Amino acid sequence: MTLGIYIHVPFCGKKCAYCDFYSVGWTKQRAEDYTEAVLRNIRHYSDKAQTVDTVYFGGGTPSLLTTAQLQSIINEINGSFALDGAAEITIEANPCTLTPQKLSELRSIGVNRLSVGVQSMRDEELRVLGRVHTAERAEQAVLDAAAAGFGNISCDLMIALPDQTAESLRYSIERMTALPVQHISAYILKIEEGTPFDCEEIRGRLPDEETSAELYLEMVRLLEERGFAQYEVSNFAKEGFESRHNCRYWKCLDYLGIGPAAHSCYKGKRFAAERDIDGFIAAPFQKVTVTDEAPCGFEEFAMLRLRLREGLSLCDVGEHRAEIMKKLPPLVKEGYAQTDGERVWLTAKGFLMSNSVIEYLIF
Amino acid sequence: MANDKIRNFCIIAHIDHGKSTLADRILEKTETVAIRDMEDQLLDNMDIERERGITIKARAVRLKYTAQDGEDYIFNLIDTPGHVDFNYEVSRSLAACEGAILVVDASQGIEAQTLANTYLAIEHDLEVVPVVNKIDLPSADPERVCSEVENVIGIPAMDAPRISAKMGTNIEAVLEKIVTDIPAPKGDPEKPLKALIFDSYYDSYKGVIIYVRVKEGRVKVGDNIRLMATGAVFNVVEAGFMDATNLVNNGSLEAGEVGYIAASIKSIGDTQVGDTVTNDEFPCDEPLPGYRKVNPMVFSGIYPADGAKYGDLRDALEKLQLNDASLSFEPETSVALGFGFRCGFLGLLHMEIIQERLEREYNLDLITTAPSVIYKVTMTNGEVQYIDNPTNYPDPALIQVAEEPMVKASILAPSDYVGNIMELCQDRRGVFKDMKYLDDTRVELHYELPLNEIVYDFFDVLKSRTKGYASFDYEMMGYVPSKLVKLDILLNGDVVDALSFIIHTDKAYGRARKIAEKLKENIPRQLFEVPIQAAIGGKIIARETVKAVRKDVLAKCYGGDITRKKKLLEKQKEGKKRMRQLGTVEVPQEAFMSVLKLDS
Predict the structure, then answer these.
(1) Is the minimum CB–CB distance between B528 and chain A shorter than 8 Å?
(2) B51: burial class by Cβ within 10 Å (0-12, 13-18, 19+)?
(3) Do the chains contact at B553 and A363, CB–CB below 8 Å?
(4) What's A81's DSSP letter?
(5) Beta-carbon separation of A307 and B561 below 8 A
(6) A-to-B residue pairs, Cβ atoms closer than 8 angstroms
(7) B570: enclosing H helix or E strand
(8) What are the tens digits of pLDDT across the range A189-226?
(9) Would you call B590 helix, strand, or coil by DSSP?
(10) Which residue in A163, B129, B250, B366 is a FRET match for A348, CA 20 to 30 A apart?
(11) pTM of the model
(12) What are the C-alpha distances in Å from B256 to residues A252, B100, B195, B248?
């Protein structure tokens, strides 16, 4: 079985107003110490017989690491594991950090997939989100990336933003899909507790439930129209450009996470590293907490698989098959799910209600 | 002790008028309880009784009192239930006494319940001794209350002791009144044994303890006694009395005395309240008058919220029944609620008490169905059926005549609220009988009301429309023909059996609409749209819809962190446990309960 490696790079130049992921301020020293610690950890988990076919630098803002730092990490993975020559190596990047220079360097060290935090193509929306870039800057970054030879570019898109309308969403999608991108990750904004967005002022400006649902369905329609097929609740790709790394998550395949707050599903356990950059730097190996001793039981497996458009194979559910078949007809009738007798998958309308649909189906 | 030194009496009072406090003071003054052992309101020993300030089961306590005439007297204080549901138990307790102390609140005056029980006492030839309590309150008006007692009940009251049970003021006057006004018991200890059972309870060591008033003859340890209604014979193990805290086995009881008998009786069903105890070898000719078997009047389905607790519910009901022969139950199955019990109660309060005890003492989470009365249905073939469960209501085409039980209701309230009360009674299909002024500000109204109109929420609504001032009492008056229909509630097109009920045709439409609205409020929006319909036969008479949710919160699984998703899933799973799954519809237990209180 192959392995995916996730490197969590927790540095951000500026924290976005809606974000509650683990991130800390960047300093040169910290970035150096952090890189050393990542290398130590890779060596710690070293297994030369293990083929690694996806690497994902997530964050945070991984593009804040220098090319040399990123290269040392890729080299260490190559030295400690069997890194597949055709491995998918992704880096998330803030448009502002993507200069033509940086882009060609990234290409040269083997990064072949770029995930750009565009979020919106309207400046007023970007300002509300607390992003530092403009739509024009994002556009330029993507064009530069393509020019540097990136043929697998993903853009993030956020929907149900404060004051967002169907019209402004369509504008963002049209402008984004006109660029040389092959993949779009589209998230419905969720207000996280304790973030600057967790306030009356913002909540009052959010589209209501009905409008949010319509925005989502409209987005799915527009993206599909432009050749981006929905393959997961939040992910759309042109044929052959589905994120191989992210699919590991939904398919219960192994991934090893390194870095503060990184999650893993590796060697039969789920575990998470401490949310503590200093601890990560100081400790010989990252301190982890096991969150699940026996992952991928039926409920979890079904929950994750049903996030994928390909859905759940009825061959994989064993004794639950009859129960699922019995519960399906009303879901199909309401347009939440479809089946061909072999598999069950959710429609876009079903994805919107996936918590409830999955609960109904598996409990 | 000679009979002329014995006084058997009870206390009649409205809730909160101070019965238990007075009883405590009497216990204290007669030094039946050492002061240090005094706990507030000793006689009420169930939590619920204390909290609600009502007495559920009768108790009897023996006290010694040295009167001003220098003689020692034995007082037997028999505590009576205060509520109409226990009317029969009250009547049996009264039958064990020669007198009753009528406690009236000096600021509030007479209430409906007090009146009913006082009339009952007078019917039983008891000497009624009025006492005006709470004279320490600033709003106390003892003169007005005394004249109200004289006008309304027609007994002299101007010399009634003015007391404050709370402050301990003037309690001696009450004790002296008991000696001078209440007659000593009669009865010949040499005649065959004849004793009245007025209460019983189950003791896990001694078996059933029966409380008796010996009318004739005597009973002693070793005697074989026969309970005349059931015919059961037992050997007496203990005979004695109860002081404030203990049973005192003094070997025998004789005519005029009140006390207890323990005879290794296993089932409380053998010891019917009102039954006569006699000697098996030398029986009396005929039992004491007035015995009847008590029958439940109000029925309701009781289900565990968690189906797995069915066994626990059964055990709890069995235990409660050990001490409460008037509680009946049998297994019942509902498509909507699963396995549960059809329970029969003496009345509304009894039902509430049982539900509360099940929840509180046995820690059960319950779903109860709308209370039903017993309908009398004569079929076209002449057969008569008594229906206490709407599910069993026959096809209307086969019914010749349907009848419902009626009650005579009496309501006492300040005259300001007459309009509100009349409106309420009118709305509940009441037939106005008469109204009289007790004094310048208080009225008593009499109505005939269908029992099924008061089993829902009548008392609650009455209270809210009279700012809590009205008191209410009722007695059964028999069956009258009525235009009844069965109303079904459908969720997503399927009848929910637990929500069906029987109702008068004229009320069906309004009730149907209210229930549909309540259900809409209480059924959360979910994956599928939930059509709510109310129907009579096949005809839909009300409809609401709970719209489907459009969008869940789609938590991101960033970087392979699925812990939030899993937590959410666990939370949903827990939440689902509190729901009843009816087809595709998830119904929270509150929805079942919400339809029980429509006007409040």
Answers:
(1) yes
(2) exposed
(3) no
(4) S
(5) no
(6) 98
(7) helix B563-577
(8) 988 888 999 999 999 999 999 999 999 999 999 999 99
(9) helix
(10) A163
(11) 0.76
(12) 84, 16, 10, 17
